[in-house]
Amino acid sequence: IKISKSYKLASRDFHPEDTVINIGDVKIGGGELVVMGGPCAVESPQQIDEIAALVKAAGGQVLRGGAFKPRTGPYSFQGIGVEGLVMMAEAGKKHGLLTITEVMTPEYVDVCAEYADILQVGTRNMQNFDLLRKLGTVNKPVLLKRGFSATYDEFLNAAEYILAGGNPNVMLCERGIRTFETYTRNTLDLSAIPVLQNLSHLPVISDPSHGTGRRELVEPMTKASVAAGADGLIIEMHTDPDNSMTGDGVQSLFPDQFAALLRDLEKLAPLV
Ligand code: PEP
Ligand code: MN
Fold first, then answer.
1. Comparing C-alpha atoms, which of 207, 205, 217 is closest to residue 250?
2. What are the C-alpha distances in Å from 262 to residues 1, 38, 175, 226, 256?
3. pLDDT tens across 103-132, in order?
4. What's the gap in Å between 236 CA and the centre of ligand 1?
5. CA angle, 148 as apex, 79 and 21 as ends, to 5°?
6. Element (H or E) spanning 83, and its range?
7. Residue 180 in 3-state DSSP?
8. From atom 4 of ligand 1, which residue's Cα is the shortest distance away?
9. What is the per-residue pLDDT for 272?
10. pLDDT (tens digit per residue) in 139-170
11. Disulfide check for 47: which of 17, 43, 72, 156 has CB 3.0–4.6 Å away?
12. What is the SS3 string spanning 198-265?
């Protein structure tokens, strides 16, 4: 049966070949596996520099870290803002890593694009259409996270907003969806990986950290994501997870776990 789709540019019908996003000498999509690692939030120059060195030494290609944090409560730590962008850009440059950071509002897109190599749209903003439209006009790749209650159709339509604005470099990120289960923070929808690759030509990245919310599940769900065909991973890692400034320490790997996981991945799939 032919299903009519409301999105076009994101569809594989429209663009049969895999999209490959080239950033410096890193390729995202088209068969290679990219690993993005780092803390939930940028906390200080020392913290991000130390973690960048560990991501690089483990074989990661991209440093992740939030300077603007979308917190459930208004009294929680909200991120250190533009200063954090500067700290992360310096750490990335020093250690030879690309950087990815979350942008929450259209007004901050330009400054985030100035300092980071990849712009992340968080799950809570997947249907922030003004933000998506603005990201369509920038010359930086975007990692779009799936809304925690979004269908594949809604997710691909959100990607369509960015593509339709003229930015062809969009990655889709499965980061877990809300289900009846509360043992895990979210339910990582592994099916999303092959489904999205079937429906779309865009690279698909898995986030086993937010997808589970539990450190001990990050390793098996990373490997499961690779087995399911993910084009890349975004994984939280912290040198002192118990004292991290967001609640995401509980899902952050210790540096030695991160390094061991990447060694195992080399056996499953060649890293970029
Ligand atoms: C994050 O990457 O730290 C984050 C807030 O992710 P999400 O939008 O998936 O919750
Ligand atoms: Mn986080």
1. 217
2. 41, 13, 19, 12, 10
3. 999 999 999 999 999 999 999 999 999 999
4. 10
5. 75
6. helix 82-95
7. coil
8. 122
9. 57
10. 999 999 999 999 999 999 999 999 999 999 99
11. 43
12. HHECCCEEECHHHHHCCHHHHHHHHHHHHHCCCCEEEEEECCCHHHCCCHHHHHCECHHHHHHHHHHH
Q: Where are the beta strands (DSSP E) in 41-157?
A: 62-64, 98-102, 118-121, 142-145
Q: β-pairing, 26-28 with 21-23?
A: antiparallel
Integer-rounded Cα Rg, in Å, for the chain is 17
* One-letter amino acid for residue 265 of the chain: L
Task: Look at residue 198 in the predicted model and tell me its pLDDT.
Answer: 98
Question: Dihedral sign, CA of 192, 212, 262, 123?
Answer: positive
Tokens of 45: 């120059």
The two three-digit tokens of residue 216, written as one number? 């001990």
Q: How far is the CA of 1 from the centre of ligand 1 (A)?
A: 36
Residue with tokens 């999303």: 192
The answer to whether the beta carbons of residues 222 and 233 sit under 8 Å apart is: yes
